[in-house]
Every structure is written in C-alpha cells, then in structure tokens.
Amino acid sequence: MTDATNHTQTQDAQMGDYFALMKPRVMQLVVFTALVGLLVAPVGVNPFVGFVAILCIAVGAGASGALNMWWDADIDAVMKRTVNRPIPSGAVQPGEALGIGLALSFFAVILLFLATNALAAGLLAFTIFFYAVIYSMWLKRSTPQNIVIGGAAGAFPPMIGWAVATGGISIESVLMFALIFMWTPPHFWALALFVKSDYGDANVPMLTETHGRKATRNHILGYCVPLVVVALWLGFTSVGGPFYLAVAVALNLWFLKGCYDIWTRTDADSDADNHAVEKHTFKVSLYYLFGHFTALLIEALLRAYGLTAWAGW
C-alpha cells in the first residue's frame, strides 16, 4: 500500500465504492454476451429462469472483479488509470473485497446450478476461478502472454448463456467463445501501446514492456487475421445469416484496417500524434465486439419470423 492509500483507509465506504469493486463496465460486456448466447440458442428458456441465470452470471462477473481488485491492490495503487479504484483509494478494505468476492462467487454458482443445470454452473465456477486465480494470481505477473491466455475468462459468458438454454456445448457456442478470445489480445495491446508506462511502473510484463512496441504491433495484426476467420465462420452456422455476415464483413474490414495501420507505424509516428491511431483502433475494437453480438441477436429475431436465408445450417 502507498502512503496515500494508508492515509485514506479510514474513510467510510459508500455503496458506489462496493459497486465499483465489481468492475461494472466489464460486467456490462459479460451480461450482454451471455444474454446473446442464451437468446440465440435453439432452445427457449422460461423468462424467469433466464433472468435468474443472467443475474447469476452478472454476480459471478462482479465476484471476479472484486477478487481481482483484492489481489491487484498493489498494482492498482501504482498505475494512473487504476489508482482511484476502491482499494488503493482507501474506500474499501482488502479484507472486505476478498469476503465480498468469495461470498458472491458461491452465491452465483450455487443459484445458477439450482436454477438451470450443472454445466452452466460449472462453466461459471471455472470462469471465476480462471480470472481470479489463473489470470490474476499467475499469468498477469508472470508472462507477456497474460492477455492471450487470460482472455479466456472473458470469453466464457456466451458459452454459459448457451449452456443455460441447451445444457450443452456446440460449434456455435465455441465460436462465440473464440470470437471474444481472439479479439481480446489486439483490443488490450492497442490500449497498452498508449498507456505503456503504467504497466512498466507496476512491473506487469505486458508485451509492450517485455518485447517492445514493434513486436506488439506485429502481434496485434497477427491475432486480428485469425479473428476475422472466426467472425466470418460464425456467420455460416445456425446462429448466423445474411444480416450477421454483412455486419461482420464491415466490422472486420474496419478493425483489420486499424490493426494494419498500427502495424505500419513507427515509434516516432505514434509519439508525433500522441498515439492517435492506436487510440482510434482501441475504440473501434469496442464497437467491433458489440456489433457482432448485436448482429447475432438481430439475426435470431429475423429467424424467429422466418426472414433469414440459411437457418438450420
């Protein structure tokens, strides 16, 4: 803990501090992709059961965030973009964060098991464990591939949603997982290129720090290419269709161009315009993922009215 953190530890936590502990922005993405996974599945779900399932997934995501903040409090206290988080700011005590994270984890997994099925609950439990232990406690501080492998934690929600509805795993849910998994590295490495000093100050072995910015640019483009393949492949499964495919083509051309532009730049180029291309591509990456899953949702609605061209592939 820093001196500033120790100085502010006595302040009373507000409800907003506890909510921030659960990383609400990340939770929004988790809830959205899980909801899409549930709604595009070929088996309908009782609305109340579906609500409970999404609630459990959201709570599980919040639990993961709390456990991550508990473990990473020392890193967060050093990095500029995280120094105001609840623990380093002194609003929430580390022990409180640990207790909240564990309690919410057990609540979410057990309730999801009782409301749906063992596979969905098992996937949620593994996701929490993977993010809190495999990624936060091991990968993040030990390897520049932390984002690559750790990205699996954020890729499981649509698989969980699919499992809630079907009780199983299929090529569609695997490809939804793969879409998020392959998207995560270029998304975060684009961010790392313009907040690189934060990771270095915190001794986090981000690729930008261990291999340099040129290697990071190479990796961004290298992951974007197979990402395009996964995104388009999903369009030819039972959850895809002409609308999704049209959106996917447009989004992938947009994101691929951004990654290519990053790849062609030098350090001098980035410094000269204050990383304008990297920042733009990072924003594009947010639209990219949201756009794909929104298109899947619209495709499911079209399919319900018999308006898709290749339902049942």
Describe this entry's structure for a reader:
With 313 residues, the chain is mainly alpha-helical. The protein has two domains: 1-168, UbiA prenyltransferase (Tetracycline Repressor, domain 2), CATH 1.10.357.140; 170-313. It contains 17 helices and no strands. It has helices at 3-8, 15-21, 24-39, 47-71, 73-76, 94-115, 118-142, 146-150, 152-155, 157-166, 171-194, 196-201, 207-210, 212-234, 242-264, 267-272, 276-304. Pathway: Porphyrin-containing compound metabolism; heme O biosynthesis; heme O from protoheme: step 1/1. The chain crosses the membrane at residues 26-45, 51-71, 91-113, 119-139, 146-169, 175-195, 216-236, 242-263, 284-305. This is Protoheme IX farnesyltransferase.
Number of E-type strands: 0
Using the CA coordinates, give the radius of gyration: 20 Å
Shape: flat
- Average pLDDT: 88
At the fold tier of CATH, the topology name of the largest domain is Tetracycline Repressor, domain 2
Tally of individual helices: 17
Alpha-beta classification: mainly alpha
Distance between the termini: 55 Å
The residue ranges in which pLDDT falls below 50 over 5 or more consecutive positions are: 1-10
Please write the string of helix (H) and strand (E) elements. HHHHHHHHHHHHHHHHH
Fraction of residues in β-strands:
under 5%
